[in-house]
From TrEMBL:
Transmembrane segments: none annotated. InterPro entries: Amino_oxidase, FAD/NAD-bd_sf, Flavin_monoamine_oxidase. This is Putative tyramine oxidase. PANTHER family: FLAVIN MONOAMINE OXIDASE (PTHR10742), LYSINE-SPECIFIC HISTONE DEMETHYLASE 2 (PTHR10742:SF410). One of its GO terms (molecular function) is oxidoreductase activity. It holds the Pfam family Amino_oxidase. Residues 13-439 form the Amine oxidase domain.
């Protein structure tokens, strides 16, 4: 009786988890990774004078069940981002100032409006289509659910009830959160994030911006990789995948060919265009790849002189939408800040001058001495930052990749049901689910 074999494309969290799961069932697993490192869009690197900084995924939480299991499994520890003294936000060219509490209070009412309907729409947050699958669902509820994927995430604020300052404040938050323009952002994704956070904006902020791994994401993905017995081939990109109900043939860019019973592709939606699929992917999947996600933004690390305990926001037309202090370097009399913006072309991640211009919008007391990051949108192996959804893509996007009638499968944060796209938890969830389904399908019956 032959041992089932699976090729995994990508050595990020989803690929590594899937490999470990498949190997535990006795499968033969090979991982091919286009980059010269593991981790995917999680990448702990030394920047800004040798400081370990996260180029991609950063924050974790005990209410993210899949990543917390791995944190526990490998004995990792977490610590909080620093508390903030001063908050600044911009509206109509005017800089407003207050405390972080003032900012949170101002945002709270806006978020409640944006989150409206989240309890009805997502009774089971890790099964986001539950009310569509339930034949007893109220037809009127289903109609409103489907309509909630249309328009912009900020449309609900443009009713005359909210001031321009309030709308600009929400735009700052969600331009960073969606990593792209709010004008094209699906309102339903924000409601889903709320459902995953007990419908509380404070908990959502805590899950996505508060706690980090003491040994960095690298400490976690390297620990998982150490438990994978099969080969992880770096610098090995895939050019073509032939797939059928009986098996797969994977052609690498060097022309070599690998055969297996199945293939799990963990590349983000933005990178699927680098692979030629035969037969071609279904039209619904091709359309999502052609349209891309809403994730065209960036993450930047900025070192400034002196100690600055700040959080700052600006609407999406500014280069940086969210900026906050992350490390106080007392021995250097400096502060490292992390920033997010909605347009990766609006800033040069390696230019001190470009970063200085971006932070000057909040006043003149921040002097940039160094900066850095990774342009995930320009990176052909990702083609985007984390996967956030355009209007219409909650129902006609990531879920299209769950449908297959061949041995080609997709896994990764972009395809997760829970924390879809935004955090590592979704990548791990998707890797486990995809692997278990293949095990059930391919494991020899006794």
């Amino acid at each position: 009786m032959s041992t089932p074999s699976v090729i995994i494309v990508g050595a990020g969290f989803s690929g590594l988890i899937a490999a470990r799961e498949l190997e535990s069932a006795g499968f033969d697993v090979r991982i091919v990774e286009a980059r010269d490192r593991i981790g995917g869009r999680a990448w702990t690197d030394e920047r800004l004078g040798g400081h370990a900084l996260e180029m991609g995924a950063t924050w974790v939480h005990w209410m993210q069940p899949f990543v917390w299991t791995e944190i526990t499994r490998y004995g990792q520890e977490i610590y909080p981002s620093p508390d903030i003294d001063d908050a600044y936000w911009i509206s109509e060219g005017v800089v407003r100032h207050g405390s972080e509490h003032d900012l949170d209070t101002a945002l709270s009412r806006l978020q409640d409006t944006i989150f409206e309907g989240s309890r009805e729409f997502f009774p089971y947050p890790h099964d986001p289509m539950a009310i569509l699958d339930d034949p007893t669902s109220d037809p009127e509820l289903v109609k409103r659910f489907l309509q909630a994927d249309e328009g912009s995430v900020l449309d609900c604020l443009r009713t005359g009830e909210f001031t321009q300052e309030q709308i600009d404040l929400a735009d700052s938050y969600w331009s960073a959160g969606y990593q792209g323009p709010t004008a094209t952002a699906s309102p339903l994704m924000a409601k889903h994030w709320a459902a995953l956070s007990d419908h509380r904006s404070s908990l959502m902020d805590e899950q996505t911006l508060r706690f980090k791994l003491t040994r960095g994401m690298r400490g976690l993905y390297e620990s998982i990789a150490a438990d994978v017995r099969g080969e992880i081939r770096l610098n090995t990109a895939v050019s073509r995948i032939e797939h059928s109900p009986k098996g797969v043939v994977v052609t690498l860019v060097d022309g070599s060919v690998e055969r297996a019973d199945a293939v799990v592709v963990t590349a983000p939606i933005g990178a699927l265009g680098t692979i030629d699929f035969s037969p071609a992917l279904p039209t619904a999947q091709q359309n999502v790849i052609a349209d891309g996600t809403n994730s065209v933004g960036f993450k930047i690390w900025i070192k400034v002189r002196g100690r600055h305990s700040i959080i700052a926001g600006a609407p999406g037309q500014y280069p940086i939408s969210l900026l906050r202090s992350e490390k106080f370097l007392d021995d250097e009399d400096a502060t490292i800040l992390v920033g997010f913006g909605s347009d990766h072309t609006a800033i040069d991640l390696g230019s001190v001058e470009s970063a200085q211009q971006a932070v000057d919008v909040w006043g003149g007391d921040l002097t940039v001495t160094d900066c850095g990051g990774h342009d995930w949108v320009a990176d052909k192996w990702s083609g985007q930052t984390w996967a956030t959804l355009k209007s219409g893509q909650f129902f006609n996007g990531w879920s299209n990749f769950h449908i297959t009638d061949t041995r080609l499968r997709f896994a990764g944060a972009d395809y997760a049901k829970g924390w879809n796209g935004v955090v590592v938890d979704g990548a791990i969830e998707s890797g486990i689910v995809t692997a278990r389904r293949l095990i059930a399908e391919l494991r020899p019956r006794r």
